[in-house]
Amino acid sequence: MTCYTLGAWKNINKIKIENIQKHLNLWYEKNHRKLPWRETNNPYYIWISEVMLQQTRVDTVIPYFLNFINKFPNIESLAYAHEEEVLKMWEGLGYYSRAKNLHRGAKVIVEDFNGNMPDTLEEIKKIPGIGPYTAGAILSIAYGKRAAAVDGNVMRVFSRLFYIKEDIAESKTRKEMEKIGGHVVSPQNPSFFNQGLMELGALICTPTSPKCIACPLFLECSAKSLGVQETLPIKKKKPKVKTVEVEMAIVYKKKKLLIMKRSTQGLLANLWAVPATERELNFENGKSIRLELEENYGMKVTEGKFQFEKKHIFTHLKWKMKIYFFKLIEESPIDDPEIKWILHDEIEKYVFPTAFMKILKEIESIKADEVCKL
What we know:
EC number: 3.2.2.31
CATH class of the largest domain: Mainly Alpha
Shape: elongated
InterPro entries: A/G_AdeGlyc_MutY, DNA_glycosylase, Endonuclease-III-like_CS2, Endouclease-III_FeS-bd_BS, HhH-GPD_domain, HhH_base_excis_C, HhH_motif, MIG/MutY
Structural class: alpha+beta
Radius of gyration: 25 Å
CATH topology of the largest domain: Endonuclease III, domain 1
Distance between the termini: 73 Å
CATH superfamily of the largest domain: Hypothetical protein, domain 2
Protein name: Adenine DNA glycosylase
GO biological process, one term: mismatch repair
Function: Adenine glycosylase active on G-A mispairs. MutY also corrects error-prone DNA synthesis past GO lesions which are due to the oxidatively damaged form of guanine: 7,8-dihydro-8-oxoguanine (8-oxo-dGTP).
């Protein structure tokens, strides 16, 4: 059985490719899940769905997708929306740079392409946030173009199907697999073929315990014939996620909660939050965040009263969040639109990242009156 090394994809047997195309397209036609973005070939809807599906489960995406296209039914409505509106519709999905790139991309499409999603690889790659995978998905699904759409699921399928023993975490492997995708994609129905590969990776050719007996490509799978399907793909382990202790301040003034907009750069950029800071090594009992309030916000507050602890995991780090309540004693006049005092029923007007929404939901049951008695 052939083991295909990088660069050897052109040697894949023509009959093998034709069998893969035939069986995969038939399987997808009969077995694909009924999902709202599959009921259309509207390139805008396909674009939105593909971006939402990055790093996010299908079941989670469905209501967000429906709400998003209801709010922004076309590219123009998205382009002319305020960023805050777009982020609000994204609230809870995480990875907010995706929403920001969609917004930026819509503006580029309106300004440079008369509001029409480009239908060539050269032009579609000019849209912010559209990389090789998203470009291939839009071109093949919306326009029926013969383009590769290779994501993590597809790389896993290819690793097993063609017995490729290369690290899929490396960019050179991804680039070669994109070439494989372009080589084997069905010319008759590239939409079904690419969606079939994605669906196969999601439902059958799973990371662990692949359901080989139900796979339409069972007879063509090199790894299965050797009994090594569960050893592939090869992927180097991610570095251990760093844990950071973060102190957060819940500060009330006459039943109003203090919130602020985070920096335009870095983690959770430009989103609303309660004051937060990394805990200094030798500081305890909320001292780090209390100094932050005094030095950066000009607020004199009581000693912090610890309330509860939460955890939140990002891609590259884990926050161990400690929440402290403070009573405001004195404040310097602040003329900054990015620092606000709001009532609890006004929280919905602002976009908070998931990490902070966990905190806000937790404190909903705590009366502001009780905090003020600290």
